[in-house]
Amino acid sequence: MTMTEVTTVLTGRGLVESPRWHGDRLYFSDWSAGEVVAVDAAGRCEVVARVASLPLCTAWLPDGGLLIVSSADGRLLRREPDGGLALYADLGAPGWNDIVADGRGNTYVNRVAFDPMAGEDTKPGTVHLVTPDGVVREAADDIAFPNGMAVTADGSTLIVADSYRHRLLAFDIDPDGGLSARRVWADLGEGTPDGICTDAENAVWYADVPGRCCVRVAEGGTVLRTVTLDRGAFACALGGPDRRTLYVTAARWQGMTEAEMVAPGSGQVLAVPVEVPGAGLP
């Protein structure tokens, strides 16, 4: 696919991440600004929450509640109807990254066990389960750099991007929300998966920062489609009225240990038409 088939929804942002389609708007996070932003089809933006956290990822609960990961202080927040933020669960130590909720209200939050921005040595990370009653427990370990996550349309499987091992992992979701039957869903070769989403044919789209692309893969790793960009792709989500638009958050990557990880003002939200609609969560 050429860049001419990619349209720009908005530009001039910082490190943009965590796109989520909800209702009739796309929500995304600008980590540089500490903002969760909603944008409509006309490009009108509204800041719906401000949290000084990096990472800054979000998930929608089945009841319509918006959860926000406040990574720096190890808290999971819920946006209240008046726009305020309340504690949903205490996650403990800092370092939390992506989040996804399933159709039963279970929430999965993953944690990177080292500080890449400080240049620390790599340590395997984890995925934790937060049940609707606020109980937090570890559900999976030994993920080199846990990144984007998605729940399949039937609610049976959690897929996790293991960025540093260049693969997608899959887990069965047990009746109590626990994870079992760990397996490699797809070996991506040189692909480096960041944010991910699933579609109605059980394929996964993954965003790739160093590869400057979004890639659609089948279980096993067969590449079905590639969208090439002129900057790093951090995350993607299928949305729009029929979920046939791939929204991509992208920016010019400068490096994990740089004072500004992306070039200021290079953050964009992009849109790409697709044939297979989105399915599953987020």
**Please, what is the CATH homologous superfamily?**
TolB, C-terminal domain
User: How many structural units, i.e. domains?
Assistant: 1
User: How does the overall form come out from the CA principal axes?
Assistant: globular
Can you count the helices? 0
Strand order, sheet with most strands: 1-24-23-22
User: What is the CATH class designation?
Assistant: Mainly Beta
- Approximately how much helix is present in the residues? under 10%
Class per helix and strand makeup = mainly beta
Order of helices and strands: EEEEEEEEEEEEEEEEEEEEEEEE
The gyration radius over C-alpha positions equals 17 Å
Low-confidence stretches: none
Count of extended strands: 24
CATH architecture: 6 Propeller
> What kind of sheet is the major sheet?
4 strands, antiparallel
CATH fold title: Neuraminidase
Q: Could you give the distance between the termini?
A: 24 Å
Measured by DSSP, the beta-strand proportion falls in: over 45%
Mean pLDDT score: 93
